[in-house]
Amino acid sequence: MIKEDFRAKEIQELYDRWSNAREDWDVAAREDIDFYLGNHFSNEEAEELASRNQSAVPMDRLYSAIEQFKAIITSKPPKFSAVAREDSDTKLSNVWKVILEYIWDISEGDEQFKQAVHDYTVTGLGYFYAYIDKEADYGRGEIKFKHLNPFKVYVDPNSRDRYFNDASGIMVSNIMSKMQLLDAYPELGQPTEEGGEKTFIDLIDTVHEEDYPSNQNRRTMDSFTPDVVKDYDYEGSSEKYRLIEYYSKTKVPFYRLLDKRNNQEKIVPQEQFQALQQDKQFIQSIDKGFIDFVEVQQTRIRQTCSVGQIVLYDLILDTDIYPIVPVPNIWTNTPYPMSDVRKNKDFQRFLNKVVSLITSHAQASSGLKLLIPQGSVQDIEELERDWANPNATLEYDASFGEPHFPSPQPLSSSIMQLPSLIEKYIDLNMGIFEMMQGNAEVAPRTSSATMMMEDFGQRRSKSKLRDIEGSLKRIGKVVYNLSKSHYNFQKTFRIVQPNNDINEFTVNKRLYDDKTKELMEIENDVAVGQFDIRVIGNSTMPSNKWGEWEIYMQAYQSGLIDKVEALKKTDIFDKEGVLARTDQIQQLQQALAGAQQQIKKVSGDLQTAHRESIQARKRTEVEKFKTELSKNANEVKADTKLSIDRLKDAVKLESEKLRLSSQAQLRQEKSQKEK
User: Fold this and answer.
1) To 5 degrees, how large is the angle CA 417–CA 418–CA 424?
2) 211, 246, 436, 458: most buried by Cβ count inside 10 Å?
3) For 199-239, where are the E strands, in sequence order?
4) For 294-323, how does the pLDDT look when each residue is reduced to its tens digit (9 = 90+)?
5) What pLDDT band is residue 192 in, cutting at 50, 70 and 90?
6) Cα angle vertex 636, ends 630, 637, to 5°?
7) In what helix (H) or strand (E) does residue 175 lie, and over which residues does it extend?
8) Taking the alpha carbons of 246, 247, 253, 258 in that order, is the dihedral positive or negative?
């Protein structure tokens, strides 16, 4: 509920004092922005250059060095880790890593990170801001973070801590039109009293100044910084209001409850403790001595929003760290650090002077000068006009003397070397070296040597990165604190990985008994446990992927790592798909090798079988020949026997015939004798 409150007046008085204390830093930071945008010359310097027919164009080495530094620091998003303070909390570590990655994603963390680093480099001071977006997720709200314009943030000037931990307060100023203010807080349009015509917004004084300082030395025709652009907003310029969000530290009571029956301890805020006191069972447990409690005071952040003398709301945030986290650059032991632009402006101006001198000398040397005696030429303009005609005939009075052409004096070689020396010094201040800019001429021949040189070269950048990582760690802690109290409902955090795989966790999942319907357990209860949020060092820095890939390939070929570890060092989008396909290919190759071995074995077997077949066939032919030979032999033998038998029969017959003939002859002879 809005109301007039003395606290709003106190906040306005603090704003006046803190803005006055910051005035010098405002002007210096504004000049740094102008210088970064290329406005290196004042109006007087630009006019002087124009009088010498030179353009006011700087040799802007500082801009390229700053852009290179920003590219190195923000090459990759930071990697957060959640370390459990107790062993029982370990299972929730992965849940919190997913939650932090989810919040980074929905907050467009890469862009917020780059803008904060930009402010850090150019103005000397960047800011992160963690908050609850109440409209997100259809009214359930989301924890988010963003960068803040450093000119809108005001800090206790007595703070001496690098991250403003010791500051009595931090405030954010926003200039809003009447329409914007009423849209955000429509209750300001309500009458201050019943039946009255005067509304709350009518009580608020308007403002004319912005939270961005003007710079009278800038060249407005080349600058489009906020103080220039705001001049184009004429409509409603007289009805603007300053809305201030003031953050301070306060003590808030908490209650530590100890249940002696199970020796479990629980810490609850005051509102929850007051609600428990309405529970009869809780009161009986206290009376019987089952539960002990003790009140403890804890630091929390108070957020008060006011406009004019009106307080719009007054809240207690569940975090002991300011949700506005600074990213300070060159520390000055005050809330007003110095930027890299301011540190190198004089060197850049020196570079511009040297280049201007060289350019002026080149102009003077390139243009041919003719010196003639006074009075030797009647019409100088005619001479200048005809001088450009190669076929012109020019007359002069020789009695006055001969014309001549003066030779320009050459510049010293040391002056010609100055630009490169100054550029190297600017690069040295920024921690940017030639090899880090991709200059192959200064790179070693081997990848291992290149990576070693890059590591040495990045030490300056890594030193500055550690300061930035300190801010990232703090904003991570704030996000963690706010998330513990805000995400008290069941919610699924889903992260889509680069390979399109989905990594998700469901928190505060309530498990009930199927029969009794009583709550049995809350799975992944984010309110349970305590975690330390950390940032993995140098996780945002670029890496020499080719050099690392070569080293990993050597390790893979040596058998020190497997293909999974080697593939992690590549930029291949679908690593899991590649691994699956390589497994398939390997399986096919193994199957092919097995098939080749089987084919070789079968081929050998076939050759053996072929030889055995030939031998068997030969044996068969031999046996067949033997059989035929035996058959023939038997046939011959039979024929021979038959012939012999026939011969024997013939011989026997002839013998019988001879015997019978002999007997007949003998009988004849006997008969003759007898006769």
Assistant:
1) 100
2) 246
3) none
4) 999 999 999 999 999 999 999 999 999 999
5) confident
6) 85
7) strand 169-177
8) positive
Q: Which of 394, 391, 390 is nearest to 381 (CA)?
A: 394
pLDDT tens-digit series, residues 260-273? 888 888 888 888 88
Kind and range of the H or E run holding 493: strand 491-496
**Rounded distance between C-alpha atoms, residue 401 and residue 609, angstroms:** 119
φ and ψ of 604, to 5 deg:
-65, -40
Overall residue count recorded for the chain in this entry: 675
Structural tokens at position 128: 């992160």
CB 298 within 8 A of CB 240: no
pLDDT of residue 381: 75
Q: Looking at the predicted structure, is the pLDDT value of residue 333 above 80? A: yes
Hey, how many other C-beta atoms are within 10 angstroms of the C-beta on 216? 8
CA neighbours closer than 13 Å in the CB half-sphere of residue 399 = 1
Beta strands in 19-119 (DSSP E): 80-84
Torsion over CA: 493, 133, 275, 318 (sign): positive
Tell me how far apart the alpha carbons of residues 219 and 233 are, in angstroms, rounded to a whole number. Answer: 20
Q: Are 465 and 538 in contact (CB under 8 A)?
A: yes
Angle at CA 585, nearest 5°, toward 579 and 587?
100
Each residue's pLDDT tens digit, 66-112: 998 898 889 889 999 888 876 656 778 888 998 999 999 999 999 99
